[in-house]
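Lecture notes, unit on protein representations.

Consider one protein chain, 594 amino acids long.
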Amino acid sequence: MVFIITNLAPTASLLSSSSAVHKSASKIIAYQLNNLFSSSNIKRTFSTCRVQSFSPTNVGNTKVNAICIFRNDSPTEEVNKVTVYHQFQLNTKGISTLETYLLDSNSLFVNGYHEPAPVPTIPSVMTTPNMQAKPFDFNVTFIITNLALTANLQDSTSSLHKSASKIIAYQLNKLFVTTNIKRTFSSCEVLAFSAAKLSGISVYAVCSFRIDSNPQEVTKVTVYRAFRDKTKSISTLGSYSLDSDSLYVNAYHESISSPTERPIVIMTQIPNEGTRHIDLNVTFTISNLTFTNDFQNFNSPSYKSTSSHIINLLNKLYRRSKIKKTFLNCKSISFRPGKQGSTDVETLCSFQTNPTVEKVDKVTAYNEFRDNTEKVTALGSYSLNSNSLFVNGYQELESTTTPAVSLPAVKEGDLTFELNFTIINRNFTEALNDPAATEYQSISANVSRMLTGLFKKSSLKNSYRIAKVTRLSRGSVKCTCTCYFNPNVANEPVTAEKVRTEFDAGTNGTNWLENFYQLHGDSLTVEAKEPISANKIEIPYWGIILIVLGVFLLLMLLFFLGLLIALCLKRKLHASYDVMQHPSGFYFLHQKLN
């Protein structure tokens, strides 16, 4: 299957099958194709679609080459290139849109089969039959700048993806139910996340309105402007910060105002800098609280008593934590049904930005919650799911040293390399000065495991032995690691430049370490150290000092001994060379003096 997307530029990253942009776009388009055929008339034997490649067209659009698979028991009269073509055509509004993507209506080919596009006057909104199925579904896309993209966030089966999707969908629903088009608003659903061009993540959502919506009242323009007006000109959605020029509704977009106006706004906000605050979404699951429908009725006694109790517990938690000086309060609690009768809790906790106190972010708020709930197990009388805590989509990766245990031990002759790089999506805390601290051990174990995964997938996989974090220091988080390689099994010489090249390739140009730790692109250094030697004796620094002092004392002793010998010799030989032996001289009698 081949078709052309007209609002997707064929960049070098998109065309490279190893890039994060290529992988993200492939997943999103495959997801849209799977949705399309899963809801079509030939869904019974449909299996899956996958994108094979992208290529540029002559006019700067992107050609997509995909394969869609149907089961072996598919009857040929039901599933063939013509029926697949027609189903694609029917569910893309005459080959015009694939969710957020705009299509070239004359570009579709299925196993070489193609039908010329109809004249432009035919596919109008009033006469296209399938437009009545979902006349008021709007594709809403925007960029969140304060949420980092990770592999777990892109994985639709992960708990992180599900949690972030629910939080953002909740914020979108809350937004539209307070607008002037709320009468026929139904719901919003987050479909996927992908990497944004510069920073943050792109969010792909669908917002639905009821069939009885007035087409003149609910349009892509009114939906766009309702979103804009309720997000402070596309700047904040709950606790999320938005790219003000990133909103598209069914491909409709309005350019932002001239940048020359911005300094005026910034200047008027400077005097109030000390009174500003940040809001963090805190979500977790209470396993011993059974969800009831009353929890979603804000006026019910059950909601009021339970929410008040949990808010009080959260306020007490943060007021006795290390970030109590900046904590304001927790509020706006909501409940959702969790797994096995449990209850998912979402709340908003606010912290003030005080210039005299270290800034609070999602990591520090997460760590304080964890440390004051016995590692996310108990909040007052409530039992918590230890793997359910998220703060603004952030969840601490479980530390594990399993890969390191399975690696061979370091041996004599192994080559040693010291790697230095900077993690920029983590803030340095005093706990990272202490190797015995839980936070230090967690980051150390994660980095060691990730480096092992990186080198085990590289051309150095046969010679790689183990990686150890030796130091974490201030400056975001500067990480110093030691990696060991066995030169006897290497296919080519293991050098510092080779180690650097493999690290760079495995982190997408020193940008992301396993899509979890974001790296400073210019921070990587690799230095070869002395190979491991069994006969090498490591002398501690205090031993070196003692040796230097001993040598100094020995030299001083030799100096004084030489001085003493010189004095003794001088005393012994004193006057031995005098010609006149008596101070008065001698008188020789046999000589006459006239």
